[in-house]
Amino acid sequence: MSQELYEPMVGRYLQVELEGRSCRVYVEEAGQGIPLLCLHTAGADGRQFRHLMCDEAVTSHYRVIAFDMPWHGKSYPPAGAYAEGYRLTSDAYVGMVVAMSRRLQLNRPVVMGCSIGGRVVLQLAQRHGPEFRALIGLEAADHQLPWYDTAWLNRTDVHGGEVCAALVSGLVAPQSPQQYRDETLWQYKQGGPGVFQGDLYFYRADSDLRGKLGDIDTQRTPLYLLTGEYDFSCTPEDTLRTAASIPGAKPTVMREVGHFPMSENPQQFRQYILPVLEEIRTRS
Hints:
Blueprint: E1 10-18, E2 21-30, E3 34-39, H1 50-53, H2 56-59, E4 62-67, H3 90-103, E5 110-114, H4 116-128, E6 134-138, H5 160-169, H6 178-189, H7 195-205, E7 223-228, H8 236-244, E8 250-254, H9 261-264, H10 266-283
Helix pairs in contact: 3-4, 5-6
């Protein structure tokens, strides 16, 4: 069967220890070169980065890697954890990314995360900056004020997936192609019970970084912050405020993009991310 029939990414499972528990984590990757570790948004999974993995302008220079966090996508909850429920904390999230990088034996990877993944990028820069070649925060800021009621996200009398998708649907820019808008929202409809709510504990309650990021060394580990102009969850103003508190951080406001740039409008996103990746590659 012809190889051209298949998209270039390869998916496998990796055993990794997270918070003292063995976890079976699903990982996809494509390309070769500088490792680019991608972190999906709350309640979603690594499929959000499929367009990057199919873009030869990226994969000819970067080994693009995306994993589904435990409880998300094709990654099950850790053994024995199902009955406990799910709640993501800052320490757990930072430890997870570092553990995945080390388990995959990545040599100073670039880490790119979106939304909650963008928030944890800021913490990685502060706590583990020297381990990374560069850090890219999409829709990233030091704090956002809540604009939604999370009590609706895990109720027996409400379809959680429908509510999650409805909640985030307004965060997609009106210019985003319908096909990719539908794909982005479908992932939210498929999320496990309480998972989106558990991710938002990190986002809303356990990661207020205001006034705490001034010691990030962007000379050693460059930090790029890219936010869509239509994002009213992490607004451009939130990102610009955050960048102003970090000497050397490089912010960009992306036109005609919302909260999910890599999945909702991949063609528009590549206009912004390709120059960043080229700058990192040239610097390396």
